[in-house]
Amino acid sequence: MDATVISSLLPVVVLIAAGYLAGKRGWIGGKSVKDLSNLIFMLLAPALLFRSMSTVHVEQLSLRPVAAYFLAAGLIFAAMMLWRGFNRTAAVLALANTYSNTVMIGIALVGLAYGPNGMVVLLTLISLHSLVLLTSATVVLELAVAHEHAALSGVGRQDRSAILRTLGRALRSAIIHPVPLPIIAGLLFAQTGWTLPEAIDTPIRLLGQAFSPVALAMVGVTLALTPVGQHWRGALVQALFKNVVHPLLTAALGWVLGLRGLPLAVMVVAAALPMGANVFLFSQRYQVAEELVTASVVVSTVLALVTLSAVMALVGYL
């Protein structure tokens, strides 16, 4: 098994295990999980996302290599929504099938395996990854919430103006939201050419650095507090979609689009990365499939020890 893959994935497994131990020993109780989720979603994640986007200049982005990644993700997301229906559960699981852990695992892995040239390709993806996938998922989820509320209230067919009002509320909720808003704000800030004063940048950087370890530890805490064993089959299906189907479809579409060599290799490896912790946070925020998503993140990460090694061995032939 590739030592680079193991060295990149092992810290993730250890952090989840540490959270699991904290949950099992009762250091963190079930009532605290919601508060931790709010801390991560409302404070740590916005700091990380804003700072990550605050140095990205639109004219420097090469969008062609990431087209295959997002096209594959879009097809998988749409297929999942068609299969499971238009609801919150389907949207969260579709996000789980397409959202990679590009930051905590991807940066270390690609940097070690493909060097500076590979990092340029990956950072182009990272600069758009959350903006495209999380914002799109948020719009779908907010529309699904509006649809479910309408169904529960007994509202039947809506006229065109009512549908437009619902869409407007959903789009507003999707933008005034702790994930897309800091991404958009950071991207706009970057275009000004300004830099953050150190007194402001330092606390934002420290908050952002806390995101990954705290979020992964919370996955472990939730794992310890919920009966995940009964979800292992569903978790394995979700993990196989993310770890196997996503990179295979990305490779096929990239080949069709004329991509070859390093750009295609990096995109396929990025698609093969396990699920990112943001998927777990979305399931917590929208209160759907929490146990299944928790199990899926863990299974996907552990399975990646094998699937990533295989993908990295095979992309050399592309």
UniProtKB/TrEMBL annotation:
Assigned keywords, A-Z: Cell membrane, Membrane, Transmembrane, Transmembrane helix, Transport
Domain of life: Bacteria
Membrane topology (UniProt): Multi-pass membrane protein
Ranges annotated as spanning the membrane: 6-23, 35-54, 66-83, 90-114, 120-146, 167-190, 210-228, 240-258, 264-283, 295-317
Classification via Pfam families: Mem_trans
Location (main, coarse): membrane
Protein name, entry field: AEC family transporter
Organism: Variovorax humicola
Phylogenetic classification of the source organism: Bacteria, Pseudomonadati, Pseudomonadota, Betaproteobacteria, Burkholderiales
